[in-house]
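## retry 2 of 3
previous attempt timed out at serialization; input unchanged, resubmitting
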Amino acid sequence: MEKSLSDLNGTDPYIHDGTVQGVLRGLMNALTRTTHRPELDDIAAIYLDLRKAARKIRVGRGGSIFEARAFEDLAVLARELAAHQISSLL
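## retry succeeded, writing output
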């Protein structure tokens, strides 16, 4: 019996080598676009800024970054960082 998420059935698995860079590279390959095509360095810079913000939110508010307000704040920040980092979004 094939065990797979129905949305991913029939797609090639993307290997990430157990690293952040590998995960980001896999996401870039899985979520390809014809416009607004950021480079790996762009995505990595956004990730580092989000990681710092997540740490501040977690320490400042306590709780989890997956609570509704914290997660929404990170999503808004991610959009702002992407708009600033990726020149084709300007």
